[in-house]
Amino acid sequence: MAIMEVIMPKMGESIMEATVLNWLKKPGDYVEADEFILEVATDKIDTEVPSPVSGYLQKIIIPVGEIATIGKAICVIDSTENSAEPSPSTSTVTMFPQHEELALLTDVSLGILGQNEEKSNPWISPLIKQICLQENVTQRELSTIKGSGLDQRVTKKDVLNYIAVRNSKRMIASGTLSQGPGLRLPGDVVIEMDRMRKMISERMVDSKRIAPHVTSFLEADMTAMVTWRETEKANFLAKYKEPITYTPLLIMATAKALKDFPGMNISVEGNYLVQHEQINIGMAVALPNGNLIVPVIHEVDKLSLLELTKKVNDLSNRARLNKLTPFDLEGGTYSISNIGSFGNLMGTPIIVQPQVGILAFGVIEKKPAVISGPQGDQIAIRQKMFISHSYDHRVIDGSLGGGFLKRVSDYLEKFNISDHEL
């Protein structure tokens, strides 16, 4: 009988742990090799984890709502068919050969729950005990919480939701609900941030705390690019079966400028600067739930316009369907945000750490402009767009940040399809 511990695989660069969202199988179920057995959430992406072997799921080690550490066991599978009882000896199976041994949650004081109560409810995890201890949740309160996890176990989310509702009721009873910065009025609905919104919030605050942001602005004449796209977009779609948006054109201009200004294609590591050879550009994608994710297009400068268009369309579609992989989100060296798709004129984007800059492209609008020609200065209708460049003033000064922005604008204004390989 082959009893095997399934190890949490490496999920991507710098990811050390994941939260178990849902077990797709329950103990006793048969699973095929490579069949998905659970869903997890990392600090970058939600994804599914496959089984490395065929067999019966004997035991779930990490329940819903708890933390699975990369390199640690998450469940036990009996790979011998028709087996009913587990063997006392187990072997370990890793889903990928590379992983780091990392410490899981340490034991915490049982505190309010007490030693006897742990015996009466063996499914209360150390993490939940710690939360209860910090928030003064008694055993009696805990017993009233309806669990949403496997076999109706109480999860971290269940406890946090209970605490939020309990605290609101206490504020109402004390008459403090409408006082101070946390203003609430009759009829208000309190909505807890979802996991991704909390993560985005933390990262934005961290970025502003870490890097002193400076933002430069420039208005680019997009007439040549707009004229080409409006003329060719139908032919492009018919010929290549891909819609051509402005995003790949903006990314291509950014990549060219990064080659000209390699000092912008760096990361900060403490007192060191890391100069990147690869040009990997992240593009902000708005999700249907209002959250934001930044998938990465790797080695943009090596892609043709058609290849880049396919990459942009594929990543955008999979992002909105929650089908991105960990690889799709790692390795970014610079980022852009096409806020013009929301009709915004300009913005002051926040840097994706540890990168040192980010561009925001505004909406393209027709405007009267003065142009110089053989007959002298003339007023003409031009397609104009504001570009915003936020950069880390610890390591990027105005000459570099402003020069890079101007070079991006130059490439956009001088757009000629003959300069691009399709």
TrEMBL record:
Enzyme's top EC category: transferase
Pfam families the record matches: 2-oxoacid_dh (PF00198), Biotin_lipoyl (PF00364), E3_binding (PF02817)
Cofactor: (R)-lipoate
Residue ranges annotated for the Lipoyl-binding domain, each copy included: 3-78
One term of GO molecular function: acetyltransferase activity
Residue ranges of domain Peripheral subunit-binding (PSBD) in the record: 123-163
Keyword presence, Nucleotide-binding: no
Keyword Membrane among record annotations: no
Keyword terms of this UniProt record: Acyltransferase, Lipoyl, Transferase
EC annotation from Swiss-Prot or TrEMBL: 2.3.1.-
Coiled-coil region(s): none
Gene Ontology CC annotations of this record: cytoplasm
Record-stated family: Belongs to the 2-oxoacid dehydrogenase family.
Protein name: Dihydrolipoamide acetyltransferase component of pyruvate dehydrogenase complex
Organism ancestry: Bacteria, Pseudomonadati, Bacteroidota, Cytophagia, Cytophagales
